[in-house]
Design brief:
This protein has 13 helices and six strands. It is mostly helical. 5% of the residues are buried.
Length: 241
């Protein structure tokens, strides 16, 4: 890749990422900041006024308030799980990085195939993640995979193969990315819908939703026409912004 092409790749990727990066810096708490306290008056419960300071919690208040006393006890409040905090927001730590630390039992900063075997899903993708094929997954592999993805993106966007990207090529590549994302989300949504639709009548009843905790919690919100069922249209994934 020539020097000019390299500089162009950096400029293009920076421009495409700018919106996401800006949004993240505006919404993410500062490093080391403590998690917002829900129970402001320390009485052991969260009332509707306290929940109002946390939009996602306020939105789910009536669903979470099982005994309908207008307060959320510790048992009724959502607990941390799957990378989410008590207010329904994704935590800034954990996830893939936390798994890496957990699997790295010898503390050498890399994951061997034997260590990966303790986590089936990680082990399943080990060969792909080991980008340089040295038998370990570490920071070097992440950097190499990132470079490979950038090179693949550039090659796909550079439709006339002249080593340069025009504005039209960039816009087309971005539109294709959005379309591919939408297709993946639709396919995944269709699979999940089919799995939840136990009687295969083309809709999900409240009883069928009980086996899916997140779907059950949001059932009333998702049931736009209030017919007591969820259709595929009501569960259609949103387009990425």
């Amino acid at each position: 890749m020539t020097r000019n092409k390299t500089l162009l790749v950096v400029a293009v990727l920076t421009a495409l990422a700018a919106g996401t990066a800006f949004a993240a810096t505006q919404s993410a708490p500062a490093a080391g900041a403590s998690r917002p306290v829900l129970d402001k008056n320390g009485d052991g419960v969260v009332d509707r006024a306290e929940a109002a300071a946390h939009p996602r919690l306020a939105e789910r208040f009536d669903t979470l308030d099982k005994n309908k006393d207008g307060k959320l006890s510790a048992e009724e409040r959502p607990h941390r799980r799957h990378g989410m905090d008590g207010g329904g927001h994704r935590r800034g730590h954990g996830g893939h990085g936390g798994m890496m630390k957990q699997l790295d039992t010898d503390g050498d900063g890399r994951i061997s195939k034997a260590e990966a075997g303790k986590q089936p899903r990680f082990a399943e993708h080990f060969a792909r993640m080991d980008a340089n094929g040295d038998g370990y997954v570490d920071a070097k592999d992440r950097e190499l995979r990132g470079k490979q993805r950038r090179d693949e993106w550039f090659a796909g966007a550079d439709t006339d193969k002249d080593g340069k990207l025009t504005r039209a090529e960039i816009d087309t590549a971005d539109a294709n990315r959005r379309a591919q994302f939408q297709q993946r989300m639709q396919a995944r949504g269709a699979e999940r819908f089919a799995a939840a639709d136990a009687n295969k009548d083309g809709r999900i009843s409240r009883d069928e939703a009980k086996g899916k905790s997140r779907l059950a919690e949001r059932f009333d919100q998702l049931d736009a026409n209030k017919d007591g069922f969820l259709s595929q249209d009501e569960l259609k994934p949103r387009s990425p912004r």
